[in-house]
Structure formats: C-alpha cells, structure tokens
Design goal:
This protein is an alpha/beta fold and 139 residues long. The chain has a single domain, classed as Response regulator (Rossmann fold). It is built from five helices and five strands, in the order E-H-E-H-E-H-E-H-E-H. Strands 2-1-3-4-5 form a five-stranded parallel sheet. Strand 3, helix 3 and strand 4 form a beta-alpha-beta unit. The chain is globular, with a radius of gyration of 15 Å. The two termini are 21 Å apart.
C-alpha cells in the first residue's frame, strides 16, 4: 500500500530537513511513501481539493494561531485525512488545541526525528489498512 504524504511547510530549510528525516524514517520501515509538498495556504487547499493525499504534515507557519481552526476546517472537508501539526516550541499550548481540532498528533518541530516519523507513519499505515478491511464488503 502506498501512503500519500503531503507536507505543508513554507520554510525551504524545514522542508529539506523533513525530507532528510523522511528518508531516514523510511530506512527504518518497509513503508511505501510518496511525498508531495506545498508552501502556503492556497496551495494546500488546492492540493487537498484534488483528493490525492492520505496524511498531511501541517506546519504552524501556514496559519500560525489559526492552525487549530485550519485543522478543524480541513478535517471537516476531508474526514479521511490524517493530520499532524508541526508546532513551534514556544507555542506549546497549541498542542492540546490541535488535538481537540482533530489532529492525530502535534509535535514541536524541534523534536521531529526519524524514530518519531517512522512511528507516526507506521501507526497511520496500520489504521488505513484496518479501515480498508472494515469498508470491504463481506465475502
């Protein structure tokens, strides 16, 4: 199964870091992941409307204090998506807010590493597999 991962990260250096972390995470797991990237809110919404992704890594910088509202809006429109919010360390109070808005996880960007990402991707992979089995018609 292919996991379609979308990153919504405006900063080029953070995008490059995440690609490096993803490469390392995929070395640790047998997952098949395709990566797409957007850099701003309008690109994000256009990409989501095309229904081409399973998981979104949403950087705080896309909407800043509006991130919890954006998470809720995205999941209201696209309830099958899994969304992870990448938060700034100095704004930790938003971790609970993005969780309440429906994010699967919220993590300060400073704590992202390959172990964390491989774990998140593996859990989401298994959840998608199980959901697919539940929606299949009985034989």
């Amino acid at each position: 199964m292919l996991l379609r991962l979308l990153t919504a990260i405006p900063d080029p250096s953070t995008r490059a870091l995440l690609r490096t972390i993803l490469d390392s995470a995929l070395y640790l797991t047998p997952l098949n992941v395709s990566l797409a990237e957007v850099a701003d809110h309008s690109q994000l919404m256009a990409r989501l409307a095309a229904n081409r992704d399973d998981i979104v890594l949403l950087d705080w910088q896309i909407a800043e204090s509006g991130t919890p509202d954006l998470v809720a809006e995205i999941l209201r429109r696209y309830p099958r998506l899994r969304l992870v919010a990448l938060l700034p360390e100095q704004q930790r109070q938003y971790r609970q807010m993005v969780w309440e808005a429906g994010a699967c996880n919220g993590i300060p960007k400073e704590y992202m590493d390959q172990e964390w990402l491989s774990t998140v991707l593996c859990i989401m992979h298994r959840a998608i597999e199980r959901e697919a089995k539940l929606t299949q018609a009985p034989a």
